[in-house]
Amino acid sequence: MSLRALLAEVDAGWLDDAGTPLDPALVARARDSALGRRLLAAWLAEGPALALLAPDPSRDPDVVRGRWRRTRVDALCRDLGILAHAPPIRAEVRREPVRRLKATLGNSYLLALDQSVWDGRLPPDRLEQATAGFRTALDAAIAADDPAPLHDVFDRQGRAELQAWARRRDPALADWCRLLHSPGAADEALARLPEKPVLRVYTHHETRAA
């Protein structure tokens, strides 16, 4: 297992001692030492990376990293976040917001519109939650002529969707997604997509990764 490559991508926010971040210089030295890497891996295996780094002779954690590079995980999360906001995206018919959405989402705009992937049905409280955050981000993106607010909303929601789904279907991937970003970068409790739509998008990205 290439712990060096794997640990190099772990967000430093996961490396702490009772809530106190480890000294960056100490972490850097540990990453450059075989013993230090084993200690860091053991540390993470006791907490946020239990499924990814726990000893398992039948699975190499680096296979997960190799198959799901950061760019691929981020692309998967972006699509899941867009799909999770399908109801308010479909409801938006104003010319300038639609233009902005098409420019920001690219081909993924069609994913949000495709009801064969997900019908977009949500209970009223979840629909209100999805719409409010989306509207705020869309207004900010238009005002600043910057897609970043929309990307942030989609990415955070997508990480929640992937982690909540993978916690049941692929726990090692759920851990890997968490470790790539700072603690608190996603709240799995906010996930709202049914399992089948997530599986369809995941399978599409997994096929491309393979």
Description of the molecule:
The chain has 210 residues and is mostly helical. It has 13 helices and 2 strands. Helix content is 68%, strand content 2%. Strands 1-2 form a two-stranded antiparallel sheet. The longest helix has 22 residues, at 148-169. The mean pLDDT is 92.
Shape: elongated
Main beta-sheet annotation? 2 strands, antiparallel
Q: Helical element count? A: 13
**End-to-end separation:** 19 Å
* DSSP strand count: 2
Pick out its properties:
single chain; 210 residues; mainly alpha; two-stranded antiparallel sheet; 2 strands; 68% helix; 2% strand; elongated
Task: Give the topology.
Elements: H1 3-8, E1 16-17, E2 20-21, H2 24-31, H3 34-45, H4 50-53, H5 61-67, H6 70-84, H7 86-91, H8 95-105, H9 108-113, H10 124-144, H11 148-169, H12 171-179, H13 195-209
Antiparallel strand pairs: 1-2
Helix pairs in contact: 2-3, 6-11, 6-13, 8-10, 10-11, 11-12
Structure in a nutshell:
This protein is an all-alpha fold. It is built from 13 helices and two strands.
